[in-house]
Amino acid sequence: RNGQVLNSPMAVVIQEMVACEVSGVLFTLDPVTSNPSVITITANYGLGETVVSGSVEPDTIMLRRKDNGKLVMDSVVVGTKHQRIVMQDSGGTVTEDLDENSRNESCLSRETALRLGKLAINIEKYYKSSCDIEWGILDDEIYVLQSRPVTTAAAETDNEIKHEFDAPLQCENEYYTVANVG
Fold this sequence. Notes:
By secondary structure, this protein is an alpha+beta fold.
């Protein structure tokens, strides 16, 4: 299903909970257009639950891969984030309201966003696939919490299906067919 093996081995991972100051989700392609030259980062203060659940509108940062291999900041949209979830010393989590300054500024600096982008490219190269990565930052240290392949990138749009035969044939030995041979 969705490009993944149905009967695949499984592992159980037990990891320490990281009391992230900032966290979020990163796609090594544009999740809307599947453009592989765009890296999309969504982020909020605190634990990543607010970003993953959609309970706040996170900051959205778009990085662009240049032909020379460099990453550049393409755009920053500061979300109307109003809350964060943080760990309690006694265990569990608590939701806190953000102050006005935090609401109106990006929770990631340009440098940190570019560091995340470079790390994501290395993960993508290792797995040889576009990735959906959950990450967190504590004391300027980036923690990769989870990485999985993007499974929706190859889906054809309605427009692509509608116009799939619009291109001319490249030579006289090419033929179009929609015959079902199975």
